[in-house]
């Protein structure tokens, strides 16, 4: 009987730590593993704009019928300008097929399924390192997943030459996953001036760019974080964008996302949409309604939209302050290491440089949960836990340095 011989799967490297964390009985444990923003009191905030939108939705007692397969047009129209900017040019808007998805993850999977079936793609390349789930999502769609170099040997800046060399040797039709902003897990984004070389290589090698836009608003601000997407749009290259709205609306469990396929013209976009709908229908049928309605209500109500932008901006600014405090606290331990990299990284994560051995010790000895790659979510630090975390990390850096020199 096959069910008795099924092997146990490995724990998910990120969400699996959530499970382990919730079973940890220690009172002073801290979860820095998953990419979630907590406020200074240690809580995932329910944004005021969302609370207000939710109150109005509850009052209107909307029925819970099936949604359109690709999500309501109102959702698509509301999200499009967030990602691509104000659509003064309607022909630009009409050549973008945007569909609602179940968070950013299913947008990536839908993109991979679509490209596998209709783009002739059988290979994908992700940055080395990348989000731990990219391989599984793309591989699950039947793509063979390779990597392109992303970090320099010192691991403190992107390795543009290495990246371009690897992309230059990719076969035409390879899907290239790029992080639109707030690179996960490193926090090191390509400098703005590097993108023209990346785009030139993509065009020359006829690669298919898939932009992962999971953290818009957490790096340099809502508009600045969209600059890579918008540069691609003005380049005229075909490309895809997987957007998460679960994070920048603090609606993680509602799973709100969108996939946009930027096509050469309106007719192509209509045909692409029809195929995306076919893929969605045979997978989850149609997206859930509540989270998408909240996002649509906020984005289409000027006062709520303004409030959302202000709330998101204050989240971003708190993360910047936390980065500064963590770097200063670590530096105060007199370790022979420059911690200013923490303040140069963008978004929720810091790629700390700690190895898997030290990350495990942080977990076991101190109840501080980060990912084995050394990634920590700085958005989970606050005025009560920062000193405790900095002290434990300082010990880990010292232990790592001692192990390296012995
Ligand atoms: C993360 O990287 O922690 C987030 O994107 C959450 C997830 O699904 O892994």
Automatic annotation (TrEMBL):
For this protein, the record's SUPFAM superfamilies field holds:
PLP-dependent transferases (SSF53383)
- List all membrane-crossing ranges: none
Question: Does Ribonucleoprotein count among this protein's keywords?
Answer: no
What biological-process GO terms show up in the record? L-phenylalanine biosynthetic process from chorismate via phenylpyruvate
* Gene3D superfamilies found in the cross-reference section: Aspartate Aminotransferase, domain 1, Type I PLP-dependent aspartate aminotransferase-like (Major domain)
Taken from the UniProt entry, a GO cellular component term is: cytosol
What Enzyme Commission number(s) apply to this enzyme? 2.6.1.-
InterPro entries according to UniProt: Aminotransferase_I/II_large, Asp_trans, NHTrfase_class1_PyrdxlP-BS, PyrdxlP-dep_Trfase, PyrdxlP-dep_Trfase_major, PyrdxlP-dep_Trfase_small
Query: Domain named Aminotransferase class I/classII large: which ranges?
Result: 28-392
Q: Which family does it belong to?
A: Belongs to the class-I pyridoxal-phosphate-dependent aminotransferase family.
State how it assembles: Homodimer.
The protein's name is Aminotransferase
